[in-house]
Amino acid sequence: MRGSRHGQVGGPRSLAAALAAALVMAACGGSTDTEPAASAAAPPTSAAVTSTTVGEVVVSSCGIEYRYPETPRAVLATDTGAMELLAALGVADSVVGWFGTGTETNLAEQTRPAVLSRPRLGGSFPFPSYEAILAQGPDLVVSYGFNESAGFTSEALQGDGIGSYSFGEACPTPEVSNMETFFDDVLNIGRIMGVESAAQALVSRWRAELDSVKVSGGEPVKVLLIDYSEGIPFTSGEGSLADDMITRAGGVNIFGDSGQAFLTPSWEEVLSRNPDLIIEGGSEDFSKVKAFLEADPALSQMSAVQGSNFGDLRFQHNVPGPQAIEGVRLIAEAIAARG
Amino acid sequence: MSTGDGGSHSRARDRRLVTGLAVLGGALGASVILAAGLGPSRIPTSTVVEVLASKVAGGSPVEGPATAIVWELRVPRALLAAVCGASLAVAGTLLQAMVRNPLADPAIMGGTSGAGLGAVAVLLGGWAFLGPWTLVAGAFVGSVVGYGAALKLAEVAGRLSPLRVILAGVAVSYAFGSLTSFLVITADEASRLRSALFWTLGSVAGARWDRVWLPAVPLLLGLVLALVKARPLNALAFGDETSVGVGIDPDRLRIRIFLIAALLTGATTALVGGIGFVGLVVPHVVRMVVGGDHRRLLPLAALSGGVFLVWADVAARVVMPPQELPIGIITSFLGAPVFAWLLRRRLSPRAA
User: Which of B209, B210, B324 sits opposite A266 (nearest CB)?
Assistant: First the structure.
């Protein structure tokens, strides 16, 4: 189980947020006292970003407002997706190092040389200790969530005069996450790094790529995404990026009504919701997961296993980051290939 | 406490045992059947009955996921819970008699953490020379080492100190538990060591028909081997001198008991992880009702432990759907207050 998927996200997804978010630059929705997306109409991204003085950028992330009088020069990424995004924005040179599971074989091709040109400091799970983060002397930490138990929080960083930006999906405050949330993240990080037009170009390109994804018509296919870990299915539910990705690919997430962004459902629940397609989220060897499901007397009864309808995604394909765009295409392909 | 043999006394005892076995046996059977009807997904009772009937009596198969849910998930789960609950209760009963300390139980005496470490070592090594029994064997060896270390540490001048046993057990538990957590956290995911949570709080979610036998065989073996020594165990409760007086070698008996407890602890932990409080609380409650004679205590504690864990598992899966709670949270949540109550009761002057 990836610790970075621990964001407590919930509540109804708001389509109005999509439009609002494109105009209002903010990270992960409002200050901490904002109602946790109680009304579907209210845009979750309510904290406005305003340039107060010339050159100063104000961005709020996870409910904390940060002012950047100058462009950060020593950025630390604590997540592969964050590092890949910084590289895609063309600011890899400002990165002092990154933590993550990214390797030669699972990084996005386009940005691979730029990502690998920066020092990889270790895995992202277990989370790096707070000391390991401070040791890099960053002026900005770009992350996929924080880790309370290691003392790695946005508040601690702020107290030490370090800016932080987390992908909205993993903020501690409840918030809906979807592809638009990620695009907000892209634009916000672009602003902080002084490459706003590059960020806008990226988002436009990705929107076009998403529009070009071929979605099969007909009844939506019931999809289970599992980030499998020794007998326990860990999955993405309501209000997660992966849930939105499944919808965009023409499927319906069997845990899309869970009220929780991330959950470990019982196998009984999985069986009774009977998925038509099972997507492995990349934490484990896909063939092993497939073999386990096929050998199990109960789980092999699911229609996905009976029809051998599986999809194999990388971890980076279904969490915030540039590879999520390809993730949508791969899910759509798996749906189309369903026998 | 009766080690008694007198005629009418013995017949009364037999009657109570038979009644207890009938009541608790019926309760266990009913619990397993009811548990097959309870779970996060709503399956009509009629469908559950149809599935059970078709499988047991060989009727026409029931369409849809109900068969897989009821017959392949819930029934083996309930049976595994019953077997493991019984094993833990018997192990706890034996340990409490062996060290003459009512606080003794598989977790407190280092057996559970030893078994967890043994199982993790087998998984890490990727060994399978005994097929599915390899994991049980590894956990058994770990359990022997855990209990053995605690008992060795507790020896003072060749004699077992009941107080030191608990202290030593706690030390061993922490040491082995930390090693297990270390291995689980540092190993890469591909080695599938399950989670640190599993080894500390347990789960019967992995139950399937082909796994129910793994702890069931050790349970039957252990229970028979223990019942054969039920009378000597009664004598042991009065002290080593009493045992020697009636012709029992207390040390040999202790080794036998210790190996049975390790077998039960190992087999259980390998399959369902570390589940606390069953081995501690169940023997006490049963002893309160039927007294300390191990000829009654052992089988009745086994059935009670089974019933308890079946219902603890039902709670674990219906409390917060679609997710499950680790079963150890339920057993501790229910077991700790009962134990606290027992503790107060024992300490109150009236009971003394």
Answer: B324
| Alpha helices in chain A, H assignment, sequence order | 16-23, 80-88, 112-116, 130-134, 154-159, 179-192, 196-211, 241-248, 267-273, 286-295, 303-306, 324-336
Alpha-carbon dihedral sign for residues A11, A12, A18, A23 = negative
Q: Indicate the SS3 state at residue B275.
A: coil
Q: How far apart are CA A318 and CA B95, in angstroms?
A: 50
Show the low-confidence residues of chain B (pLDDT under 70): 1-9, 189-192, 346-352
In angstroms, the CA B330 to CA B28 distance is 18
Query: What mean pLDDT comes out for the span A179-188?
Result: 96
B341 Cβ under 8 Å from any chain A Cβ: no
- Do the beta carbons of residue B203 and residue B331 sit within 8 Å? no
CA distance B90 to A188: 61
Indicate if the pLDDT at residue A30 is higher than 50. no
Q: How far apart are CA A141 and CA A74, in angstroms?
A: 9
Structure tokens belonging to residue A31: 């200050």
How far out from the chain centre does Cα B19 lie?
Answer: 23
Residue in B with minimal Cα distance to A303: B65
What is the DSSP code string of B153-195?
Answer: HHEETTEE-HHHHHHHHHHHHHHHHHHHHHHHHHS-GGG----
Closest CA to B233 of B217, B252, B215: B252
Nearest to B272 by CA among B318, B227, B212, B330: B212
Q: Which of B319, B286, B318, B320 is nearest to B303 (CA)?
A: B286
Q: CA of A230 to nearest chain B CA: how many angstroms apart?
A: 5
Locus of tokens 């009629």: B46
Neighbour-count burial of A323, counting CB atoms closer than 10 A to its CB (0-12 exposed, 13-18 middle, 19+ buried): buried
Name residues whose C-beta falls within 8 Å of residue A38's C-beta, 6 or more positions apart in sequence: A11
Query: How many angstroms separate the CA atoms of A151 and A161, rounded?
Result: 15
According to DSSP H, which parts of A53-153 are helical?
Answer: 80-88, 112-116, 130-134
pTM: 0.83
Average pLDDT, chain B: 90
| Residue keyed to tokens 């765009």 | A325
ipTM: 0.77
The SS3 call for residue B98 is helix
Q: Which residues of A touch B189 (CB under 8 A)?
A: 229, 283-284
Reference B229, options B319, B297, B307; nearest CA is B297
Interface with B, mutate which of A101, A103, A258, A268 (most B CBs under 10 A): A268
State mean pLDDT over A177-196: 95
Chain A residues inside the 8 Å CB shell of B39? 266, 268
CB contact under 8 A, B185 and A126: yes
CB contact under 8 A, B69 and A296: no
- Shortest CA gap A7–chain B (Å): 16
CB atoms within 10 A of CB B170: 16
Digit-coded pLDDT (tens) for A69-113: 899 999 999 999 999 999 999 999 999 999 998 888 999 999 999
